[in-house]
């Protein structure tokens, strides 16, 4: 009678999301490292906006919103509902190609 | 009469999103490099699912969905609607701290 076994380990989405949850903290560290590369651009842009629009602009909120939007658009690297493929490797290559158009 | 000037450069969200769009391709490359680190785990998990559940499982779709979910959860690094802060640097530090709980 192990109650934690109630989780359905045969649900594909659940299984994958368990792994996703385990990897998330490490992934988040990597993502933050990536954003640090771009932070000076976001900082500068937000400062410009503040200068042009007014002091009631909350630059940190603008920057966080831009970061969330960047993550949202990055999902296009992993498009939904493609036809059946032989393997994930092809999906990754396709995503890389799609990346070129992604603006 | 330059029609492209019709875009409102004074809208803070628009200004920030123009920058976001410029940075997106480079950011996407960095994101793909990060995902490559984790790809073997996702591949293995999807193969296990296929083995346990059946051959009609499309592993590449499972993997892409997991990747999109990872990006979605990474948005918690940049939370919405916080109180006014002195600067973006604090936001980044807060996001790092939040990261620890993020599962």
Poorly predicted spans of chain A? 83-103
Tally of strands of chain A: 0
Please identify the structural class of chain A as seen in this structure: mainly alpha
Q: How many discrete domains of chain A? A: 1
Note the quaternary state here: homodimer
β content of chain A, as a range?
A: under 5%
* Chain pair forming the biggest interface: A-B, 73 and 73 residues
N-to-C order of helices and strands of chain A = HHH
Profile the largest sheet of chain A: none
Give Rg of chain A in angstroms. 19 Å
- Indicate the mean pLDDT of chain A: 81
- Tell me the overall shape of chain A: elongated
Topology:
The structure is a homodimer of 103-residue chains.
Chain A: H1 12-53, H2 59-74, H3 88-99
Helix pairs in contact in A: 1-2
How would you describe this protein?
- The structure is a homodimer of 103-residue chains.
- Chain A is mainly α.
- The first copy, chain A, has one domain.
- Chain A is 68% helix and 0% strand.
- Chain A has 3 helices and no strands.
- In chain A, helix 1 packs antiparallel against helix 2.
- The longest helix of chain A has 42 residues, at 12-53.
- The termini of chain A are far apart.
- The model of chain A is unreliable at 83-103 (pLDDT under 50).
- The interface between A and B is large, with 73 and 73 residues.
């Amino acid at each position: 009678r192990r109650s934690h076994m109630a989780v359905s380990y045969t649900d594909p989405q659940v299984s994958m999301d368990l792994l996703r949850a385990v990897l998330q903290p490490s992934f988040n560290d990597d993502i933050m490292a990536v954003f640090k590369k771009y932070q000076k651009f976001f900082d500068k842009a937000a400062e410009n906006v503040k200068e042009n629009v007014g002091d009631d602009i909350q630059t940190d909120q603008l920057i966080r919103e831009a970061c969330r939007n960047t993550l949202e658009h990055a999902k296009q690297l992993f498009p939904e509902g493609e036809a059946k493929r032989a393997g994930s490797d092809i999906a990754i290559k396709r995503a890389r190609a799609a990346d070129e158009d992604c603006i």
